[in-house]
Design goal:
Length: about 60
Amino acid sequence: MRWTPRGYGGQRRTPDEVKRDGWREQRVLAVSLDDDRLTWPERELVRQLGEKLYGDRDQAKEARR
């Protein structure tokens, strides 16, 4: 049995369970570019979508400095 901190009722879900449930229930997709289950073309598609929707990661770092 997994240890659960006080204040949390029931079982805690793993990050993959949260992502799976988010997709199934709300059609929200959370994807890491480092996910080994993805092929290179799939990673590239995810990268391009992320940059289109949220901007280039490197430019965001520069803007915060």
